[in-house]
Each structure stands twice: as C-alpha cells, then as structure tokens.
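User: Second chain of the day. Same drill as before.
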Amino acid sequence: MVCPKCGTETDSPKNFCEQCGFDLRDIKAQESLLKTDPVLVSMNNQYACYGIVRLVAGLAALAFLFLIYQWLENNIPERLGDIGLFLFLPALIVFIVFSVLRGSMRKKIQRELANRTQGNTYNNV
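Assistant: Same format as last time:
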C-alpha cells in the first residue's frame, strides 16, 4: 500500500505509515468498500466508462484536428478536410462533457467513501 500523505510504500498488514505515521486504516476500509459495496462498485464502473468515452473522444478530436491541418496544407482532398472540420467540434464537446462528468463522479465516490467510513470502527481491519 502507498501512503497518500508521503507516498511511501508500506506493508499491507501495518496500520500506520512507517515514514510519516499516517493512519492507513481508513484507506484499507475504503479499498475494501470499493471492491465489495454494490453502490460503490457501480459508481466506480461508471467512472471508468466515462474515462473510456473521454479517451475515445479525445483521440477522435486529435484525428479530426490532424485532418484539418492536412487539409489546410493541401495534402489531402477537400472532402476529408470538410469531414475533419465538421466532426472536430462535436468530438471536442464530448471530450469536455465527459471530463466534467468524470470529475463530478470522482467527487461523488470520494464523498460516499468518506460517509461510509466515517463511523467505521477499526476492530475488523
């Protein structure tokens, strides 16, 4: 496990970071919740899907931008340049929208984890 405070790699059975003394019990509880709680698993899957859509839209936007560049340099036919011109903006919008959705989903996951581990006792970890 990596300490979120100082970045030191620690052995998993330890409850505190060897370097800075950070309490790792909350992190362990959160990791187990992310793997077992159905609501958090679903939210985490949605977060991953948003990332995939964002990646594909970003790559498409770059490809269409490259088509526009090649069209402006007169290296490709005008039709391909028009395709790049008309599809670049929608791909960019999809990329931005899913970036925002992914960020908001990450905040929701963090809030949900904090709420669920707030009252947790450390006896079972």
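Residues 37-119 form one domain.

User: Great, on to the next one.
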